[in-house]
């Protein structure tokens, strides 16, 4: 089923060995193939970055756009033809830096898109510069002494801005991630699925996660289920360093845009 | 009716079903009129985007669903659109942009007319490319040329620009709305043909999203399948030369102009608001030995038309900028080409132009 969605004549792909993006594309296509959607009426969009190359490997109509702007392009696609299913692949730089304004406005409008953010905490494509999600103290080519700016929490951003569905998983949580994407696809309105993932080439190498498995192990060890996270917070416990909550953060039915009129 | 409203009505008459925009003086009436009209037209969408970068992105996205799509803006917004304009060029996306020009640079003169974006529209995005730019000089032309812009966009699969200005956009004149306007949609992509294989005219057939052709669209240099191929010099050379030549090679065929007094010795080359003063001088006051070439399509520049004045001793180019299209005219002729520049927002007076004729007479 899932294999039908791959654009076979585009292989080999550009991703480095050990990159987390392939796992995420697999999960998304697995979820999409479970929706029963017609490939003909499904459109993938992306901005610019390694993550944004994903639509090029999928056998549907696809728009590989400009850096940061995929959600604005997707807004045009979806509003002009609400019968299309629209999915956006993006990166942490693409979504939260250059595309931050489009991101929050699409959440506010609750336009019926599913956005999958491959958050590798780094500008992968341009060779490892710091991004708005690079954790404090971590090294990149533009934070050679350790990042000194507080990072964005993409989930908090999407929730505050009004999105109807928001989840976070990692490239380790393949099953949960697939399920979350499926929920996002099925929820009318704006859905964000943040996926924390490894970039051994640009992030791992400079931050002591040289082997792909090093960072996957790190993700697994530091991801805390949302409910547990919240009860720890309530009881005033100190949160373990580098840990972060995963799970479904919001599923609601605020008014949406870009959904076909009931005929 | 006002020029800006005429432009919006021209778009609707042409079947525009998607408008994405961001308010900016002196173009805002276009968006406001679309906001009032489009929700009442089935299958149409008006959306106010968060900025002009998003507006340009949205109309490109809409165009790929097969919709006729448009935005309207002015100087600062036009500058913000530049990156995605290049994307529309590279991906051969048909769409229409209305630019109601105002005085620049920067925020400049929001309520005053200008023609200072005539080079930006041609060259403003990075890389080599070509586009089509139309310039109305009356309210009627705002309607007619906006409707026409959609046909050119579809035929050549390119962004097309209505380069009006504040004077024309806010002018009120009588408008005759025809019962129907000519509509030419893009050629459809023939069965078995790749999505970026050009036809004999250099333009590929169009397979909008949802038609089962599974088109991959990218702003990267791409092959005929639409797949990225960014390091092959010959591929890039062939693609970019085609994007330019599909428009430049058609420049004489699509030229839209008026010629008055082919025997003139002093010939005004004009477009947009200055056409009005030229008509006053040549048509009404009948200043001896003068004639004019009014260009309704300025880019691609139809230089052959300059040869239609065999007795011409000098071309005079009145513009509301410090000399833009005058350079283009000068590039193609060996006789004197005299700029009459006026910035600040006021039209040239007939006396300004008569003075220019005198200077031309004394120097030739
Ligand atoms: C307007 C613009 N600015 C800068 C770039 C260069 N650029 C390409 S990808 C990228 C960052 C990508 O980072 P991210 O979105 O995190 O994607 P990743 O490669 O990590 O998946 C940048 C800055 C560009 N293509 N366009
Ligand atoms: Mg990244």
Tag the structure with descriptive keywords.
heterodimer, A: 263 residues, alpha/beta, Rossmann fold, eight-stranded mixed sheet, globular, B: 364 residues, 2 domains, 11 helices, binds thiamine diphosphate
Instruction: Tell me, rounded to a whole number, the average pLDDT of chain A.
Output: 97
Q: Based on CA inertia axes, which overall geometry of chain A fits?
A: globular
Based on the coordinates given, report the CATH architecture of chain A.
3-Layer(aba) Sandwich
Q: How many strands in all of chain B?
A: 14
Give the strand order of the largest sheet of chain A, numbering strands 1, 2, ... along the chain: 2-1-3-4-6-5-8-7
The domain count of chain A comes to 1
Give the integer mean of the pLDDT values of chain B: 98
Task: Please state the oligomeric state of the protein chains shown.
Answer: heterodimer
Query: Number of DSSP helices of chain B?
Result: 11
The count of β-strands of chain A is 8
Pfam family, one (chain B): PFOR_II
Protein name (chain B): 2-oxoglutarate synthase subunit KorA
Subunit structure (chain B): Heterotetramer of the KorA, KorB, KorC and KorD subunits.
Keywords (chain B): Oxidoreductase
């Amino acid at each position: 089923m899932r294999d039908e969605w791959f654009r076979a004549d585009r292989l080999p792909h550009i991703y480095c060995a050990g990159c987390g993006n392939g796992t995420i594309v697999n999960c998304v296509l697995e979820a999409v193939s479970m929706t029963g959607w017609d490939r003909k009426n499904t459109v993938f969009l992306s901005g610019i970055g390694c993550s944004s190359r994903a639509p090029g490997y999928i056998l549907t109509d696809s728009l590989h756009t400009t850096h940061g702007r995929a959600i604005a392009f997707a807004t045009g696609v979806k509003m002009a033809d609400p019968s299309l299913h629209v999915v956006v692949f993006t990166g942490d730089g693409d979504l939260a830096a250059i595309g931050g304004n489009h991101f929050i406005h699409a959440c506010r409008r609750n336009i019926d898109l599913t956005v999958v953010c491959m958050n590798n905490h780094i500008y992968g494509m341009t060779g490892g510069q710091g991004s708005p999600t690079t954790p404090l103290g971590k090294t990149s080519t533009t934070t050679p002494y350790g990042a000194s700016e507080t990072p964005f929490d993409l989930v908090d951003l999407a929730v505050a801005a009004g999105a109807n569905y928001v989840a976070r998983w990692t490239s380790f949580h393949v099953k949960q991630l697939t399920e979350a994407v499926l929920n996002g696809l099925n929820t009318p309105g704006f859905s964000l699925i943040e996926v924390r993932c490894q970039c051994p080439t640009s992030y791992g190498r400079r931050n002591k996660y040289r082997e792909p498995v090093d960072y996957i192990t790190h993700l697994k060890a530091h991801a805390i289920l949302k409910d547990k996270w919240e009860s720890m917070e309530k009881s005033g416990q100190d949160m373990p360093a580098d840990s972060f909550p995963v799970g479904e953060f919001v599923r609601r039915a605020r008014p949406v845009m870009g959904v076909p009129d009931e005929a | 009716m006002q020029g800006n409203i005429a432009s919006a009505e021209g778009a609707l008459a042409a079947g525009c079903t998607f408008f994405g925009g961001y308010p900016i003086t002196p173009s805002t009436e276009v968006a406001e009129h679309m906001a009032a009209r489009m929700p009442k037209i089935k299958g149409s969408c008006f959306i106010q985007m968060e900025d002009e970068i998003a507006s340009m992105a949205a109309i490109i996205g809409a165009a790929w669903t097969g919709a006729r799509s448009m935005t309207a803006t002015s100087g600062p917004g036009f500058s913000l659109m530049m990156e995605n304009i290049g994307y529309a060029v590279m991906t051969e996306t048909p769409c229409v942009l209305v630019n109601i020009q105002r005085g620049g640079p920067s925020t400049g003169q929001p309520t005053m007319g200008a023609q200072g974006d005539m080079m930006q529209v041609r060259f403003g995005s990075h890389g080599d490319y070509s586009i089509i730019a139309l310039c109305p000089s009356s309210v009627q032309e705002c309607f007619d040329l906006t409707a026409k812009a959609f046909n050119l966009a579809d035929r050549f699969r390119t962004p097309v620009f209505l380069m009006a200005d504040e004077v024309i956009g806010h002018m009120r004149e009588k408008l005759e709305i025809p019962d129907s306007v000519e509509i030419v949609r893009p050629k459809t992509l023939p069965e078995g043909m790749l999505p970026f294989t050009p036809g004999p005219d250099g333009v590929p057939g169009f397979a909008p999203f949802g038609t089962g052709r599974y088109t991959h669209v990218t702003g990267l240099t791409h092959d005929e399948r639409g797949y990225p191929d960014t390091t092959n010099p010959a591929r890039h050379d062939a693609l970019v030369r085609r994007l330019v030549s599909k428009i430049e090679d058609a420049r004489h065929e699509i030229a839209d102009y008026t010629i008055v007094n082919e025997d003139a010795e002093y010939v005004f080359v004009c477009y947009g608001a200055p056409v009005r003063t030229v008509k006053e001088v040549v048509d009404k006051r009948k200043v001896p030995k003068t004639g004019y070439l009014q260009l309704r399509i300025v880019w691609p520049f139809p230089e052959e038309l300059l040869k239609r004045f065999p007795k011409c001793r000098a071309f005079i180019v009145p513009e509301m900028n410090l000399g833009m299209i005058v350079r283009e005219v000068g590039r193609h002729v060996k006789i004197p080409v005299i700029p009459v520049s006026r910035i600040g927002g006021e039209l040239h007076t007939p006396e300004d132009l008569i003075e220019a004729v005198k200077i031309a007479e004394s120097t030739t």
